[in-house]
Amino acid sequence: MRTKRTLLLVLMAAFFVGQGFLHHSAIFPRWRKDYSANQGSLGTAGLNPDQLLFALIGLREFVAGILWVRADSFFDTGNYDAILPIIRLVTWLDPKQIDVYATGMWHIGYNFTDEDQRSDRRYIPSALALGKEGARQNPHTYEMFFETGWMWYHKIDDDYDRAVEWFLKAHERPDMLPARKNLLSNAYQRAGEVDKAAELYFDLHKAAVKRVQNEPEVFGHLQNLETLENNLDTMLVRMVQRGYVAKNRNDGSFETGAYDVNPPFDVGFSAKVTVVEPRVIQIEGTWNVLPVGTRVRAVLRDADYETDKAAALHWDKTSSVNLDPPRDKTFMQEQLFVKNRRFNRTIDMSKDPTMYPFTSKDYVLEFYYNPRSAPPHIQDKFGWSGEGMTDKNFLNTEVRPGQRVVYTKMSLTREQLLRQGEWNPIDGKVPILRTKNYVEAGQSAQDDLIIVPQLRGAGQ
Amino acid sequence: MRVIWSIAATTVGEAVRRRVLLIILLVGLLLLTIAPALGQLSARQETTVLKGFMLGMIQLTSAVIALVLTVYMIPNEIERRTIYTILSKPVQRWQFLLGKYFGAVLALALMMSLMTAVQLLIFFIQQGEIAMELARAPALFFVQMSLLAAVAIFFSTFVSPLVNFFLSGGIYLVGSVLSPLVDTLAQSRGTTPAAKIGVQVLSTVVPNFSSYNVQNPIINPGQQIQNESWYYTMVTVYGLFYVGILLVAGILIFDRREV
Description:
heterodimer, A: alpha+beta, Serine Threonine Protein Phosphatase 5, Tetratricopeptide repeat, 2 domains, four-stranded antiparallel β-sheet, 15 helices, 14% strand, globular, disordered C terminus, B: mainly alpha
């Protein structure tokens, strides 16, 4: 009897060791790779036990579907804050819901604004993190790679090499839509990689011709081919007019030829900043270009805000989705619209204290203009990377290596921005900052007249 | 072996006659039939929701059946004193316990097969295709529920049915989050080494039910999985090891118990 019990105990121990070995060495690594609903950790912090329970009993996708329908009603009523936890919950419950990732990313990146519709860009790192997570969870389809690329291309509107990186990943996926492939070429152009852009257009054109030959009855194929022909045609003309072809010949023809970007044009940037009221600033200045479409970026931020480059946030700093942006930090970005060679914009940050908390002591106001973000008709003069642009005082080739941008910055204190102490609005001084070259402008009747663009020699 | 088989066959007969089990099964089948309507709740995800809901329902219903079926098995025999009649014959206690367990597993197999067949039929009616991949997940759910039944049988040798229901159900829930928990903690920078070791120990001691949740690639096609049958074999062997541990432990306890 005793021997039998001992045998059974030994058998139990053997089974125990066997299951432990199997689980840790063979089963768990495979389960994690192939069967886990979440490819990698999503972080479940903040989930209630009842929400967790739904997931446990195997109804993840069902619950996720219902929650997303509920979120729809919040979109309708404009209750945007309520949507954020739903996005997080749905993507956790069912990480294969690409629509939720894409919509969530757009929502976080675009929908949080102040009273004047300026985006709260402190959310963008989170939006990008959601895109990265969506791509990681759905690596078999192009969609989240494309959407993340689009966020870099359209919303951040500066680091186009990152857009190229994501669009390339989207291109590797077999389900990438042909019509969307054109965007990679645009991104290449904005990233200054003109040869690659042209090469891609030729490849896409070749593929489009083949599709039309194979299925002539499909109207979409024809439409796509015509778009590509048009794009390719425009691009080749621009390559010639902007002197790109001549420059790459290295035979001196660029220096002597009449190209749009040669000689570089002085934009004559100057600016004056006045804190007209607490949290309200007026920015005036000059920009020596007549065609409509120039927007100079102005950024007001905490001096110690973590950034990786000038006039920007560290957009890509996180891979974890944090739906609560740093509420103690201020980051305001505005585009100063140039009209008749001047800009004049009053930025009121007094109505949105949660977006502009002004808790730091020191602030930086940056002015930044990058021709890569400019519309094509402006780029026709300035070139893809600023070859045709200069500025006697503020041309900068360091803040964006390989590009010629206009950049300068000014310092402001919290007391100045809030009009406190010696800057109080009753009997204090008015904080005014100027660039050295700023000249006061007299009002004229012409100030309200927008002059129609004229590319060649515009503004000269 | 014949003795074990006889007890198992009798247990199956008893199980299919128990009204409470039939009602649970009927509710499960009804929920399966309304699944196509729920699929409409999610744009572009109808098939995903349909598959996810149906597989979830099979798993949930099977877990409830497995618990209700097994927690009463031994205590009822003792309470009704029918165990005396059985043990007075040339039947060893271990044979009785194994017979009861295999009977429960066979009854589970019957009921789960029925649910799987209904699921395939509904999917065929709704989508117009025979999706045999939908039978793969219930196959592993069956191993999972056999393990759950072994947990409940083990506890039924020394605790009351109500306590057993919550105890086994609790172990099932904990076991169902083990892999995601280990995964999340392993990747979280804030996790202390002690917590990581603790979870590893827990995942070795507690049966890991989450290894059987293989529905993700079935619900979301497109994910490439290599050598799936190898994984299925491994988790089945893992389940058999654990069932072995629990049955042997149950036999050791039941052998010494006064009835």
